[in-house]
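Homework-ish question, so no full write-ups if that breaks the rules, but can someone show me the predicted structure for this set?
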Amino acid sequence: MTARVLVVDDIAANVKLLEARLMAAYFQVISANSGQEALDICARSPIDIVLLDVMMPGMDGFEVCQRLKADPNTAHIPVVMVTALDQPSDKVSGLEAGADDFLTKPVNDLALTTRVKSLVRLKMVTDELRLRADAGTDMGIDQLLVAGIDDKIGERGRVLVVDDRVSSYERLVKTLSLEHDVTVITDPQEALFSAAEDGYELVVMSTGLENFDVLRLCSQLRSLSRTRMLPLLLVANPGEDAMLIRAIDMGVNDYILRPVDQNELVARVRTQIKRSRYNERLRESVQQTVEMAIRDGLTGLNNRRYFDSHLESAFDKAQSGGKPLSVLIVDIDHFKQVNDVHGHEAGDDVLREFAKRIGKNVRNLDMACRYGGEEFVLLMPETDIELACIVAERMRREIAAHPFIIDGGTKQINITVSVGAACIDGNSDSKKALMKRADDALYSAKRNGRNQVVSDAA
Amino acid sequence: MTARVLVVDDIAANVKLLEARLMAAYFQVISANSGQEALDICARSPIDIVLLDVMMPGMDGFEVCQRLKADPNTAHIPVVMVTALDQPSDKVSGLEAGADDFLTKPVNDLALTTRVKSLVRLKMVTDELRLRADAGTDMGIDQLLVAGIDDKIGERGRVLVVDDRVSSYERLVKTLSLEHDVTVITDPQEALFSAAEDGYELVVMSTGLENFDVLRLCSQLRSLSRTRMLPLLLVANPGEDAMLIRAIDMGVNDYILRPVDQNELVARVRTQIKRSRYNERLRESVQQTVEMAIRDGLTGLNNRRYFDSHLESAFDKAQSGGKPLSVLIVDIDHFKQVNDVHGHEAGDDVLREFAKRIGKNVRNLDMACRYGGEEFVLLMPETDIELACIVAERMRREIAAHPFIIDGGTKQINITVSVGAACIDGNSDSKKALMKRADDALYSAKRNGRNQVVSDAA
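A: Not a homework solution, just the prediction itself:
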């Protein structure tokens, strides 16, 4: 866990101090002595984290932060505001400017390295998701993925407080309830269970739990796949440094020391939730985008690219396991006429409805895909040719029996399909040969008058 | 950095020993006392890492490892073989069975926690890329992404050795050269530069560098974006535990102690390269898949989904910066006739060639996309309506002047296009209104006889 840290301060002595401490922890340090210089550096070289002094002549820290966060090219760089201890309102202003964290002067060593580490770790996840690593020449993808991500920020968060001392949790709840929905659980094991089940966005844990090591709970939360990404914040006592270092190393995201400063608590909680929502949406966006790449946009079925890759693994699995694998190629009869007579909209209606009906006829194990135009393929693992033909015949009959509705429900037309079926044939068979036999069978079905199932065994 | 660790050993005392040590480091431990039980546990619950004893009655550790690696559902779980010190050949057999790392009995505390940590960290990157986090119900995506990833494994690796003692690096080179292309650089700063520029797959660093702290080099390598993912392996001396803990914490992937066991070195290097290639390909695969989702398959231009998202940000940018933004909607005249007279193949030829010609007429700043069917859109930032019309007119003329070649070069046909142009109009304008004006202009162009450019200003 190391990183390129940009230290921004107009007073050279402050820069030197932070620089020395960060370098001792093996961070790479770059420095700037004005807001403008900081912006220039971030624009032209990769920076992992910015430590930003608030009070600077000319452009102050808040403005620098605002500008960094407003530019899509730098918005993802974590910014830590370095504020004076006697200016608690700075924390709130910093947050409003989009800062990710705060450090109070004089900067404490523990706070400096743990907070920098925690932010760097988080940024690495974000970077991975943003697909920027070297390949990131096409900024467009990146912009597409993060588009609209800010939408839900500002909604109330769902916070779980784990604490067994009434006076302590009552104070936490009072502060947090202003912006979030807060649940308190006093028993750590019950808390673990609830965290995995109840969809919280942050867990706030007290270090003073009776008869229970809070690090054990942190470890359990970080080990379960459902809570691995859940932000964790510790409320600790001064002097628990060694434990906090261990906690951050374990993946705890942030901590706050007692006596709890209300503004700081509000700010830290807000930041954790905001950041976690950002990564959550980014993850969803990547997932959706990948899903789009394997689906046919019109019918929602898998597309041909996906089929080709899936056939490969299904074929290998069938052959190595000595199990049958059947394939059906299904073609809509006289589909060109549907388009010519009723228009392309009607043709699309037919394709969509057809895909729905196919969906009803397949098991979870099977895979249906739109192979191209009006041609569909059904891949059926662990299915011999007899069973494949029964499924195909049932599908054919179902299509022919019920007319298709087009033009927004105003018309209906009769549709039939021809089906070619083939099954894997011994160890010397190949994917290509299998598809060819199904295709030949389909051709026979067409030639014999359509609206029928033909198998390669026939 | 914590995880669910599965400890597999038929001797209960060995299980207890590892369990105690791992739990002290706050890992979650599950145990199994036979190979079959281990396979069952991995199949039904998420495991982050497996510590696997070699010598077990019935199914031995090699077979368990082989089976885990052969099943696509468990292949990504890192496996550490726990071998006896007097069986160096076990390391090689373990590697052949697909193991990711080795520990020798009696297991040393440092080796145990650092190796487990390093593997867990790597698995988290892989998990993120595999998009398994919770959403991973569609196993198909996962299979698609990893399909064909093993192809290049076995090729010679490119290894950089950083060491300034001749006797030491000569021995490393001799061993590594059997399987890899090895370069030695004695100066750490030169090594850093070369690592960033010369495409190595692994850096092997000696801890005994004269006048240079090797951790500084590790930190630099982990901070540069081009070397951030590069596997790093330290060759250390016994007694350098504190330094090694720090190194692993910093992101160094593995280490080996002097005197260097040749088999172990070969095995560790091979594993690092294999694993890094896997993640590299996975990253490429995700990237490609995401790219596919934003492109039109036929023409290679961006698709409508991408355009919609891009328009949003381009529009906001233009409005906030007070700059013009123009849009052209380009429609191929009488395209239906091309399809009807010459067939769909010819229609596709025309669309592809048309996309190419558009490509020649746009600047890097512009964005061309296939909006649907025979309709294309060109988005032109910082372009007023006069300039947009000049570009449109040039494009229209270029299309009409040179016939399109179809049917594999045997025929050519004349194609014309109609273009509607519009430009952002003040602060009260909206994306929707802008697109509507361009569409209305296109409609006028069609109604006025096609093969012409009409702007909303006209």
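Now go work out the reasoning yourself. Hint: Residues 304-455 of chain B form a domain with the Alpha-Beta Plaits fold (CATH 3.30.70.270).
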